[in-house]
Write a structure and sequence with these properties.
The protein is an all-alpha fold. It folds into 2 domains: 136 residues, Tetratricopeptide repeat domain (Serine Threonine Protein Phosphatase 5, Tetratricopeptide repeat); 57 residues. The chain contains 10 helices and no strands. The radius of gyration is 20 Å and the shape is elongated.
Length: 213
């Protein structure tokens, strides 16, 4: 971000003091990238407010959609992957609309994989796994969540691993793998506690309470 702002300032200085205007298109692209990043962060904060209130926040989706347009304009696949993920997450989590969410999540996964962005890929695969679970496609859901979990382990994203183990616990229960469910819940509880992820700890205990005795 600092480098982008530096490019803009450099283009301004050269235009005003040297009469060199060839850098203005570069400055425009840099500003678009900065604006896109800011829009994603604003949308994420509104998503947090949704999680707090369970009330849709009017600006959330437009922020992410505008970010996609800007990232496409500057040919930033990594940035677009993140923005596409958030559009998919919005439709899945806020509006409970997986048919609309899944195409955006799939685009996100494709772009993130191409850009080498394993964190965004882990999020896209996680939410595609959630969609598959909700559709009763348990084997597909497990594969997606396990890929997401492996990516998060490699990144050292402990709280994210614990979050995925919640879903994998429920999948194990749905597939009749009771021993696996207990093992997954135990690991999830330990990881959530070690990372201070209180909300995930609560989710793990809720999942554990549904494991057949």
């Amino acid at each position: 971000m600092d480098e982008l702002i530096r490019q803009v300032d450099d283009s301004y200085q050269r235009a005003v003091f040297n009469g060199e205007y060839d850098g203005l298109p570069v400055a425009d692209r840099a500003l678009d990238a900065v604006e896109a990043a800011l829009l994603v962060q604003r949308g994420r904060m509104l998503h947090c407010r949704f999680l707090q209130t369970r009330t849709e926040q009017a600006g959330e989706l437009p922020y992410f959609e505008r970010a996609v347009d800007l990232y496409r304009g500057v040919h930033d696949e990594r940035g677009e992957a993140e923005a596409q993920f958030w559009i998919g997450c919005f439709h899945q989590v806020v509006r409970d609309d997986n048919p609309t969410a899944v195409p955006h999540l799939s685009i996100s996964a494709t772009l993130a994989r191409r850009a080498g962005d394993d964190l965004t890929l882990s999020y896209a695969q996680r939410h595609l796994g959630i969609a598959a679970h909700m559709a009763g496609e348990y084997d597909e859901a497990r594969a997606l969540l396990e890929e997401s979990t492996a990516l998060r382990r490699n990144l050292g994203f402990t709280a994210g691993v614990a979050a995925n183990l919640v879903g994998l616990t429920y999948l194990a229960i749905a597939q009749g793998r009771t021993d696996d469910a207990r093992t997954l819940a135990d690991e999830g509880a330990a990881l959530a506690q070690s990372s201070g992820a209180g909300s995930i700890s609560d989710q793990i205990e809720s999942a554990r309470s549904t494991i057949p005795s």
